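Please annotate the following for my students:
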Amino acid sequence: MLKVGDHLPEFESVNQDGEAIKSSDYSGKKLVVFFYPKANTPGCTAEACDLNDHISVLKKEGYHLLGVSADPQKAQKKFHEKFGFQYPLLADERKDVIEKFGVWQLKKFMGREFMGIVRTTFIFDENGICVRVIEKVKTKEAAQQILEN
């Protein structure tokens, strides 16, 4: 998994509208990249909505947001439109971005083991350096966790 001090990996993926999004688009900007397991599920919805509810404060602090999951573009579009998110969601079906950040890991749930996305938030400064990794994301307090520094 990416850690504090690491550089923002180079990546390109499509957003909910099928438009190409590249890491270089955020050059010189503070960036929050949050990974969530699945669009339109309770925890992921709570997290994404909390971030959207606090988008003006996050933007005031200079942050740009980017949500990422392995959902298909169509699912991301539905999720994005349903809640009116004011930031892009990447549809990383091939898991290129997910694997570059190291969040595709073995998970355990109700005695089952499986590979999946570990909910994680990465914060990068204007130089593309990771300044914080939030591994224990509180879905209903995601924005507050980012703003805590």
Observations:
- Residues 12-147 form a domain with the Glutaredoxin fold (CATH 3.40.30.10).
- Helices lie at 42-53, 55-60, 73-83, 96-101, 142-147.
